[in-house]
Design brief:
The chain is an alpha/beta fold and 247 residues long. It is 32% helix and 23% strand. The protein is built from nine helices and twelve strands. It is elongated.
Length: 247
């Protein structure tokens, strides 16, 4: 079956130059965006129950924009002024750049990894006698705490927000040729919203090994997979699939 409609389980890109825009125009596709999950912040009361004293930590490990937003949200709600001397350890340039929303970038000590926290291993060693705080959601990839433990640093997790299944009931009678998933939570949301979901001719596209495993557990047929050596991005994987169908 020809691909004409695609539903991406993420927010719509704000940039008109998104690869999805080019994919849509090149193949005359209808591409819709709808987050299957969303993030909700924990209350100050819920955070206090974790017995976290922010003043004990002069080093903050940030692995996502959500972590940045909710760290500064909760410290403001708890009327804790984050010291100018605080050091930030970011797993990517995108997260570090996002910090500018809250701090004067050039006046702060910010350390940046290329792709992950492990890239900062040598930097962490310089501060091994200090304490580190890791703001997270209720869902945390095991590789992150495993990496921090392997580096031998003194760190503590602070759950400041949670991942929540979005209400998709308005899509019950809407059908797409391709459903695109980027996380196990997205697949969980699909079946929580539609417990009787039958794949039939719907193509399933997944990004990342953990999402592949979640799709397998849900007994979904995976038709499109990324990243691969040939298709490092989801849009490239979809385009390759469409091209192969035309052969």
């Amino acid at each position: 079956m020809k691909v004409k409609t695609v539903l991406v389980s993420q927010p719509e890109p704000s940039n008109d130059r998104s690869p999805y825009t080019r994919l849509k125009e090149r193949h005359k596709l209808k591409i819709d965006f709808r987050p299957f999950i969303h993030v909700e912040g924990l209350s100050a009361k819920e955070v206090r129950q974790q017995k976290i004293n922010f003043s004990d930590f002069n080093n903050i490990i940030l692995t996502s924009r959500n972590a940045v937003d909710h760290f500064f949200r909760i410290t403001e709600e708890m009327r804790y002024k984050v010291p100018d001397t605080t050091k930030y350890f970011c797993n990517s340039e995108a997260v570090a750049y996002y910090l500018q929303k809250y701090v004067v970038y050039r006046k702060r000590k910010i350390y940046v990894g290329e792709k992950s926290i492990i890239d900062l291993k040598d930097i962490f060693k310089k501060f091994q006698k200090e304490k580190f705080l890791l703001p997270t959601s209720d869902v945390l990839k095991p590789s992150i705490p495993d990496s921090l433990d392997a580096m031998g640093i003194d760190w503590m997790r602070a759950q400041l927000y949670k991942t929540v299944v979005s209400d998709l009931s308005d899509l019950r009678n809407v059908y797409y040729d391709v459903l695109v998933f980027f996380s196990p939570s997205g697949i969980e949301s699909l079946f929580k919203n539609f417990p009787d979901f039958k794949q039939n001719e719907t193509r399933i596209a997944v990004y990342g090994n953990e999402t592949v495993l979640a799709a397998d557990r849900a007994k979904l047929r995976i038709d499109i997979k990324a990243p691969t050596p040939d298709t490092p991005s989801m849009t490239m994987a979809i385009e390759k699939y469409i091209a192969n169908m035309g052969k």
